[in-house]
Amino acid sequence: MAADVKMLFCVGLIVVLTGVGKSALIGKTHGSGGEDLVLQYVVNNSLREHPVLTKLRLRTLQDQWSIMMVSSDQAQFMANLIRLINATKAIEIGMYTGYNALSMALAMPENGRVVACEIQDSYINIAKPFFKEAGVQNKIDIQHQTAMKTLSKCLCISHSRRTHTKRRRTVVTTSCLDCDGKVVNPAPSDQTSQSLDALNKKLHKDQRIDLSMLTVGDGLTLAIKR
Ligand SMILES: C[S@@+](CC[C@H](N)C(=O)[O-])C[C@H]1O[C@@H](n2cnc3c(N)ncnc32)[C@H](O)[C@@H]1O
Ligand SMILES: *[C@@H]1O[C@H](CO)[C@@H](O)[C@H](O)[C@H]1NC(C)=O
Ligand SMILES: *[C@@H]1O[C@H](CO)[C@@H](O)[C@H](O)[C@H]1NC(C)=O
To answer: Is 113 in the same domain as 147?
Structure first.
């Protein structure tokens, strides 16, 4: 078991923002969920944020799109997932200012690698000094190009390696609810929520995976390869 290759894919789906609506379901600690007493309780009693993550979160809150940032409780859960399966590789699709990438890198051993895909260089420039300050810049491989390009390369490599490993644990995580729960009843014009809904329904039927959908942050699907 110890030599197995474990992977965690993180898909930070692009959320089209039309103002942060009220959420009956879920919330982000830095969004409308901040007023949710249960979420406040969760944060007050479970968050263990690395000091550099705190700094990065405060810096990101100055950005006009900061609502895109992962919720701290969600990032902590994903870091714990990494520890649980001893993941040494994670692919972050859409890194934004890097909160989740940094959080995952901090949870990995020295030989761990986070491949972080991001198209916008202004976000990468915000992220970099924080990765360095936390001393994990060598664990984070920033790919400044469309995620599709990076993914085709990564998946090709992992496919060729498959023959040499006995068994691998692959956990694919995606946001499943978008930030205000619109996916529950997506408007015909709302392509983001329509696609999320279609993906959720497709995964539900897929017998190749074990599945959980959590109402943390933007919603988190765990698809665990059988
Ligand atoms: C919801 S944010 C991700 C939040 C991030 N995971 C975090 O930890 O805070 C989505 C990000 O995906 C990036 N993005 C959008 N399309 C992309 C693409 N085709 N390839 C790579 N990144 C993309 C956006 O620039 C944005 O920064
Ligand atoms: C959480 O902690 C903050 C800051 O100490 C406090 O203002 C708030 O009332 C607490 N909320 C809950 C539900 O514990
Ligand atoms: C992860 O690594 C620890 C320490 O090396 C080991 O005890 C544990 O069994 C491993 N867990 C899995 C799921 O491989």
So the answer is: yes
What tens digit of pLDDT does each residue of 98-148 get?
A: 999 999 999 999 999 999 999 999 999 999 999 999 999 999 999 999 999
DSSP for 169-216, please give it: EEEEEEE-S-TT-GGGS--TT-HHHHHHHHHHHHHHH-TTEEEEEE-S
Question: What ligand is nearest to the CA atom of residue 1?
Answer: 3
Domain range spanning residue 57?
Answer: 25-162
1 in ligand 3 pocket by Cβ < 6 Å? yes
Give the model confidence (pLDDT) of 200-210 as tens digits. Answer: 999 999 999 99
For ligand 2, is residue 65 a contact (CB within 6 Å)?
no
Closest C-alpha residue for ligand 3 atom 2: 86
> What lines the ligand 1 site, CB under 6 Å?
12, 14-15, 68-70, 92, 94-96, 99-100, 117-120, 123, 146-147
Q: Do 60 and 152 share a domain, yes or no?
A: yes
pTM: 0.88
